[in-house]
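[retry 2/3] Golgi SNAP receptor complex member 1: previous attempt timed out, resubmitting with same input.
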Amino acid sequence: LRKQARQLENELDLKLVSFSKLCTSYSSSRDGRRDRYSSDTTPLLNGSSQDRMFETMAVEIEQLLGKLTGINDKMAEYTNSAGVPSLNAALMHTLQRHRDILQDYTHEFHKTKANFLAIRERENLLGSVRKDIESYKSGSGVNNRRTELFLKEHEHLRNSDRLIEETISIAMATKENMTSQRGMLKSIQSKMNTLANRFPAVNSLIQRINLRKRRDSLILGGVIGVCTILLLLYAFH
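[retry 2/3] Golgi SNAP receptor complex member 1: success.
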């Protein structure tokens, strides 16, 4: 069962990589078609072949996920059987690892699929709008120039809107950074004030220590002098 699970996991890994590349190429090809459309060189093309490939790969991945789920269920049944009590901990660890891999693959598949469907829905909506614009432009030759100007102005407005959003984001980030710096400066200032308030007490303590050292030095010198005089008296007695 572990061998079958590993084989299915390897197949799923390859399928998911190809599936992700398909979604990326779909988005890139649609962007390229949109750029070509904006330059009025080629009409918008459909991605029916990519859609069919997407559906086929999605079905294959779902089948592999179903098979891997069945293998995990069989491993769980074997782990819970009464004949393997001594290996139960190791088997449970292996089963949990395969379950985590299955969960990761399932999450990745659904995420990639959702992204692909969102891109396709958006492109289909934009494609219908572009078709309407193209039909309008082809049906009214007198207003073609005005329509082109309107489209260019609309694109300029979109670019300006995007730049404004980026500027606002930068301003918000700068504001947050300045707020955090202000908090740090306040903290440093409070620490400096605390140290400044402690300095008089520290100076007083140092003076007391110096006085005590001086007193101890005088006492020690006096004791040494007295002892020396006594020794001299005893020696010449």
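[retry 2/3] Golgi SNAP receptor complex member 1: Residues 35-46 have pLDDT under 50 and may be disordered.
[retry 2/3] clearing retry counter.
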